[in-house]
Amino acid sequence: MTTEELIAARRAEPWREALRKSKKNKERMEIPRVKMNELDPEYRSHTRLEEVNLGLTKEQAMQEAQRCLDCPKPTCMQGCPVGIHIPTFVKNIERGEFLEAARILKETSALPAVCGRVCPQEKQCESQCIHLKTGKPAVAIGYLERFAADYERESGQISVPQIAQKKGIKIAVVGSGPGGLSFAGEMAKRGYDVTVFEALHEIGGVLKYGIPEFRLPNRIVDVEIDGLRKMGVDFEKDCIIGKTLSYDDLHEEGFKGIFVASGAGLPNFMNIPGENLVGVMSSNEYLTRVNLMDAADPDSDTPVIEGKCVAVIGGGNTAMDSVRTARRLGADRAIIVYRRSEEEMPARLEEVKHAKEEGVEFMTLHNPIEYIGDERGRVKEMRLQKMQLGEPDASGRRRPVPIEGAIETIKVDEVIVSVGVSPNPLIPHAFGGLEISKKGTIVVNEQTMRSSLPDVYAGGDIVRGGATVILAMGDGRKAAAAMDEAFQKM
Question: Three-state SS for 317?
Fold first, then answer.
């Protein structure tokens, strides 16, 4: 059944017609958008392990779901990289069928509780909502997705998608981040024997090491991963593909297909004086130490500097995660330093809002040009070049241009650099014959995610060079469908 046929069939269900008659569209459009319940900013800025967003109540979720107009051609679905049937899950929430809403989500998404928390819905599904054309705020699709997934988990009645008859074909997945997990779930549903290989000691990839607990609790990720285990997915930790096992080793162990989702774990720096000083580190190292290695514990084997005046360089979500973490670790002054204006920041508006509420300072139109150390080699000051915006560059954002002679020096005792990442170079070099781009990403067919090696597919940051959780998941779904089709033709 095609997506269009599925939409038509579901719209024809009797209960949907009853809902449409219960409230006219004009009434639905007058319902105000729900506001997310949150922890108090002062309290949460000092607690690292409590989630900021508290979720919706049943009553809030059902009322927000009433705002959905159940469009005949749901444009919101066009903005979803994994193709969730949004109107159906939303309408099930409206009628109080929360478990059914969660089941609908799991038809296409392996990680609904994760996506409901960290996906940039405002730039994807919600950006296509019909409400926006009338000047009204979009339906809070992300909040509703989180609600349905959380309700199912808390009820203890966790559903497992239907699994096809086993095919007896072994598939390897390199990396347990969102792309790898999405692919693994899709292939498991199709009846393949899937093993996910993770280099670290925890399953979850960037979901575990890169996103703080106050935004995405590890227990939520663990439940989603456990759901994949129940579908038959196997996980191998502490296994570095390209080191522990080679490409040939995987073949010898009987794997017929490989999906590479090894991410972009190589941090970028700015190559300015002083970057080798003690107290200057990448956001990757900082967040991994705190999130995955419990560095905030004084007895941890991998401690982290807990600066009192912390500057985070960058304006993306990772920069916001870093600066908000620094605040929670005791920074009296936590600063975002960004070379463009706030309007150009790629971070989610919600993350910027939360950071400001928690006391984070924003030094926009500033760019570091040098870090200065003390006699012990520790960073103590930072020289900043003031900027102004010029003409738009290739990204469509106005290019930051230095203001001649406008340089400022501020005191810092810790600097976290969050100016992007590059692909993990291990797999591209370990798999002989892979076509690699100049940026080090794996070159794939955009329709199938297939690489130059016929049995190797790839997706997520190792292909995109740095993107979102949901885009990586979309790559995983696309690759699974293409790999399955290729096997059926053999």
Answer: helix
Show the DSSP H helices in 313-460 as ranges: 317-328, 349-357, 426-430
Report the SS3 class of residue 183.
Answer: helix
Supply the DSSP symbol for 329: T
Looking at the structure, tell me whether residues 126 and 189 fall in a common domain. no
What pLDDT score was predicted for residue 1?
Answer: 63
Instruction: Give the integer Cα–Cα distance in Å for 143 and 90.
Output: 11
Those residues whose C-beta lies under 8 Å from the C-beta of residue 141, and which sit 6 or more positions away, are 76, 86, 90, 121, 125, 126, 129
Q: Which residue in 79, 76, 105 sits closest to 92, CA to CA?
A: 105
Which residue is associated with the tokens 């600097």?
Answer: 415
Are both 416 and 280 inside the same structural domain?
A: yes
211 falls within a domain:
yes
For residue 364, give the H/E element and its range.
strand 361-364
Return d(Cα 237, Cα 198) in angstroms, integer: 5
Q: What is the pTM of this model?
A: 0.92
Q: Fill in the DSSP letter of residue 343.
A: G
| Domain membership of residue 407 as a residue range | 267-420
Q: Which among 362, 287, 349, 360 is positioned nearest to 324, based on CA atoms?
A: 360
**pLDDT tens figures, 19-70:** 887 888 899 999 999 999 999 999 999 988 899 999 999 999 999 999 999 9
Q: Are 465 and 71 in contact (CB under 8 A)?
A: no
Domain end position, chosen among 404, 420, 436: 420
Same domain, 304 and 203: no
Examine the domain organization and report whether 150 and 276 are in the same domain.
Answer: no
**CA dist., res. 84 & res. 103, Å (int):** 11
Whether the predicted pLDDT of 299 surpasses 80: no
What does the buried/exposed string (b/e) look like for 224-242 if buried means 16 or more CB atoms within 10 Å of the residue's CB? bbebbeebbbebbeebbbb
pLDDT in tens, 354-378: 999 999 999 999 999 999 999 999 9
What does the alpha-carbon distance between residue 456 and residue 173 come to, in Å, rounded to a whole number?
10
| Residue 311: both structure tokens together | 């500057």
Question: 111 vs 196, 218, 392, CA distance in Å?
Answer: 16, 13, 36
Whether 359 is covered by a domain: the verdict is yes
- Are 123 and 134 part of one and the same domain? yes
Same domain membership, residue 390 and residue 331: yes
**The token pair that represents 463 in the structure block:** 């292909």
